[in-house]
Amino acid sequence: HEAANSFYAGEKVSFPEIRVSHIVRGRIPSALGKKASELLECEKTQFYQRLAFAFTVPTIFETIRGQKLELCIGGVRNYSDLNLYRSSKGLEKFSVFIGWRMRICSNQILTGEGVRFNMEVTNISELYRNVLELLNSFNAAKEIHLMQTLSDTYLSETQFAQVVGRMRMYQALSPARQKAIPRLLITDSQINSVCRDYYTNEVFGMKDNAISLFDFHNLLTQSNKNSYIDSYLQRGVNATEVSVGLNNVLQGLDNKYSWFLG
Question: Radius of gyration over alpha carbons of the chain, in Å?
Answer without folding.
Answer: 21
